[in-house]
Design goal:
Elements (H helix, E strand, L loop, with lengths): L1 H35 L25 E2 L9 E2 L20
Antiparallel strand pairs: 1-2
Bound molecules: iron/sulfur cluster (SF4).
Iron/sulfur cluster binds next to loops.
Length: 94
């Protein structure tokens, strides 16, 4: 009986020790999944200059970098995004 309790405690401790690793791996998969869900720049004709007065910094999908001129991110297009770039998915901020 005592041996069984020791075994189940050992099992529980082993599972608790592995849990943070499993959670970390799951979080990493979620991040990869989020990146994979973004569209490639080539698919949206991304260019590094404004077009028709439209540019990423005025787009609702743009997430600014640390400064106004620093590269930021886009919520739908993959990779580093220049604030004065443009793509065909542009949607003006409301
Ligand atoms: S959708 Fe296109 S225009 Fe808008 S921020 Fe993303 S890359 Fe720039």
């Amino acid at each position: 009986m005592e041996k069984d309790q020791n075994m189940s405690r050992a099992n529980l401790l082993a599972k608790l020790a592995v849990a943070p690793l499993a959670i970390g791996a799951f979080a990493a998969l979620k991040i990869e999944e989020a990146d994979a869900a973004k569209t490639a720049k080539s698919a949206v004709q991304y260019v590094t200059h404004p077009v028709g007065g439209k540019q990423c910094s005025a787009c609702r999908f743009f997430k600014a970098g640390k400064t106004a001129k620093a590269a930021g991110q886009c919520s739908i297009v993959d990779g580093s995004i220049a604030p004065n770039a443009y793509c065909v998915a542009f949607a003006a901020k409301s």
